[in-house]
Design a protein that fits this description.
Layout: E1 5-8, H1 13-24, E2 30-33, H2 41-47, E3 55-58, E4 61-64, H3 66-74, H4 88-110, H5 123-136, H6 147-165, H7 179-192, H8 198-202, H9 205-217, E5 223-224, H10 227-236, E6 245-246, E7 256-261, E8 269-276, E9 280-287, E10 291-298, E11 302-306
Parallel strand pairs: 1-2, 2-5, 4-10, 6-8
Antiparallel strand pairs: 1-3, 3-4, 7-8, 7-11, 8-9, 9-10
The structure holds glutathione.
Glutathione (GSH) binds at residues 12-14, 51-53, 65-67, 99, 136, 265.
């Protein structure tokens, strides 16, 4: 099997979701650690513009967004599916809510001075981060909640989650994990990673025990790979053959398009449309450093437009 290369950085919560899935499934992976702020030249050459983290590279195929990365990894490794049929709708819907609504509450909470821990090593890196994220926020269509709103959203969620786990089940929907466990895990990990609000977790004993179970999965690190080696692997590999199709009237396969998240970090990737269906969007692009690559996105949460 071609190696799984995760482009990520340690502080990134969405990367923590994927690190935990890789660990839970016992999958070997390569770690390409990127900077917390731009530029990220190798990742950008591969994605063609999409700038959110993480992305998963498998040879000359690049998978963007953790919803799609989870679906891609699901068929691999050991253990139960992340998308078991009996709770698939509930698990997917909870994961989407956590990754959007709870995420913005988590951002408010984590960046309260008392919850930040040592996120920034010095004032200059804090300033560089603020400038980078101001660029990232351009064109975003999201609302970051106030502290009061974020606290009440999180308190309510923790109470409901604790009640759900109170019957002794190990995971949110029963005996087996689902994608929702990993989505909730990374968000709680992010909120508390600076050591703040520890009492919120400690007082929810079922959540605290579940959190330790989930945290253990993410302790399974990847073997480092350099950006140059990751680019060389893309150059050597052939992108997957994708059955051409499009369900967008007026944008057939072969059209030059751009694909971008619809909510935030809306920087588009440019390429030629290979496929667009209810699950995925795939474009083909070329770059001197990578050769031909396929860039895959989930359909949910992404827009496709002619270039
Ligand atoms: N829905 C996306 C969200 C990804 C996301 O927001 N990632 C954050 C880091 S955890 C990001 O890209 N922040 C800006 C950056 O790192 O440049 C996913 O599931 O992958």
């Amino acid at each position: 099997m071609t190696e799984l290369i995760l482009h990520h950085y340690p502080e990134s919560p969405f990367s923590e979701k994927v690190r935990a899935i890789l660990g839970a499934k016992g999958l070997a992976w390569r770690s390409l650690q990127v900077s917390m702020i731009m530029p990220r030249p190798a990742t950008a050459a591969l994605t063609g513009g999409y700038r959110r983290i993480p992305v998963l590279q498998v040879g000359a195929d690049i998978y963007c967004d953790t919803a799609l990365i989870a679906a891609y990894l699901d068929g691999m490794g050991t253990g139960p599916s992340l998308f078991a049929a009996d709770n698939r709708l509930a698990a997917q819907t909870l994961a989407r809510w956590v990754d959007t609504e709870l995420f913005w509450a988590a951002v408010t909470l984590r960046f309260m001075p008392e919850n930040m821990g040592n996120f920034f090593t010095d004032p200059a890196s804090a300033q560089a981060f603020a400038e980078d994220r101001a660029n990232f926020a351009q064109g975003a269509q999201v609302r970051r909640p106030s502290v009061d709103e974020a606290q009440s959203r999180y308190a309510r969620f923790l109470a409901e989650m604790d009640a759900q786990l109170a019957d002794g089940r190990p995971y949110l929907f029963g005996a087996d994990w689902s994608v929702a466990d990993f989505a909730v895990y990374h968000m709680l990990w992010f909120i508390h990673a600076g050591g703040g609000m520890a009492d919120w977790l400690a007082s929810r004993t079922h959540v605290a025990a579940w959190m330790e179970r989930m945290r253990a999965f993410a302790q399974h690190g990847g073997q480092e790979i350099s950006a140059d080696d990751a680019l060389a692997l893309a150059l050597e590999a052939e992108p997957l053959a994708i059955e051409p199709a499009s369900d967008i009237a007026g944008i057939p396969p072969g059209t030059a398009v751009n694909v971008a998240p619809v909510d935030y970090g809306v920087m588009p990737s440019h390429g030629t449309l290979l496929r667009c269906d209810t699950d995925i969007v795939v474009i083909r692009r070329e770059h001197a450093l990578t050769g031909a690559v396929n860039v895959h996105f989930p359909r949910h949460g992404f827009g496709v437009a002619r270039d």
